[in-house]
Amino acid sequence: MGFLPAGALGVALHSQLADPAAAVFIERPGSLSGRALRAAGGVWVERAGERSFLDLRERFLPGLAAAGASGLPEMVLVCTNPDQLVPVLQDYVALITALAGDPQGDWVEAAPVLILCANGIYFQRLRQVLVELLEEGTLLGRLPDLWPDLMPRLVARLLRGVTIQTGLREGSGAEAVYRPGPPGLTRLAGGGTEIRAACVRRLAGLGLRVEDAGHLAPTRVEFDKAIVNLVSNFLGLIWGIDDRGGFRPLTVGEIYAEAHWPAITELAGAVLAVGRRVRAYRHETLEDLMALLRSTSVVHAPHVPSSIQRVENALARGVLRPGLPPTEVWLVEPLIKFARSSGLDAEAAYFESLKSRLEDRIAAACG
Ligand SMILES: NC(=O)c1ccc[n+]([C@@H]2O[C@H](COP(=O)([O-])OP(=O)(O)OC[C@H]3O[C@@H](n4cnc5c(N)ncnc54)[C@H](OP(=O)(O)O)[C@@H]3O)[C@@H](O)[C@H]2O)c1
Hints:
Blueprint: E1 2-4, H1 8-14, E2 24-26, H2 32-40, E3 42-47, E4 50-55, E5 60-61, H3 64-67, E6 75-78, H4 85-101, H5 107-110, E7 113-116, H6 123-139, H7 150-155, E8 158-163, E9 168-170, E10 177-179, E11 186-189, H8 193-206, E12 210-212, H9 218-240, H10 252-255, H11 261-277, H12 286-299, H13 306-316, H14 326-341, H15 345-366
Parallel strand pairs: 1-2, 1-6, 2-5, 3-10, 6-7, 7-8, 11-12
Antiparallel strand pairs: 3-4, 8-11, 9-10
Residues 5-9, 12, 28, 31-34, 37, 79-82, 84, 117-119, 163, 165-167, 169, 172-173, 176, 306, 327 line the site of NADP nicotinamide-adenine-dinucleotide phosphate.
């Protein structure tokens, strides 16, 4: 079992393991934070106000390809930001190339299953990127011809993990303190059906709260999470920052206050319209989406969404910068693109205005 990298989500999911020693952390190649954590030999974790050092010496791998066949985990939960996923796939293809170049038995099986856990709507696009990178390998003579048998087997090893974990990281580098939060459910979608079922069994056996999304397409599962994140990350921040940049961290209960429901319903309607066009949603109605949001608002009422906590921490440390964080970009940009390419001009304009309203608020908070 591997976690890539030791960020807030990776450390939080790791904390669910019954036997933490059974896992390794994998660095992103060239990552400065990865290098700092490896040099420190572990990370500081805080639970219920108690701080302890999670000793990870001998348990940091220097990237997928650099790890070599012998040290590879069976599965890797990829917990980077969404804008870091393409380099992770490049590293994965470098590993696959090395395995294919020196085959020991079934080299496809030796490649770990990758489970992409960053927030955002990206899985379909990234699966395409993986195919393109593998085909480029064949074109350049680094990989054998992968069609018709090997390519589907390799692509079946790329899964989506959509998680409601609420881990936080305060500070950076080796001084960072990690707060894992209570165990949150991770739903696995995409990839090969048997591989996914085996991952669910294996991860559950290791102690993770995990569920198979079954027949639901990864994009559908991404849309369900995106709508929850758009309310908490976008609307929650827009409502939590006033015109003059004053900031108040809102709880989920405050975000879902009675007066906000018309705006939340408008957002859900726009997501549903786009979701129907890209067939993420088929028979679902606005009431179905509102029911999903209502249950979120009840279950998580006292919780301050992690994106809001991140802004609060960045403000407190004077490191908040104008612009949207990568995860917010990967939530709203695909919706704008899908809306535009399906002729949903009103929805495209709605998501563009949502994006610029949040950019303006963050710029105001930066002062
Ligand atoms: N936190 C959660 O519980 C949670 C739950 C659901 C989804 N997600 C999603 O998962 C993705 C990653 O989120 P995250 O919360 O894990 O964010 P994070 O801690 O900020 O990790 C993201 C990136 O920050 C850098 N980083 C990691 N540890 C660091 C350290 N000690 N000092 C400085 N930089 C460090 C790494 O990039 P470099 O290699 O460039 O340093 C890492 O890839 C996001 O898309 C988020 O929305 C998170």
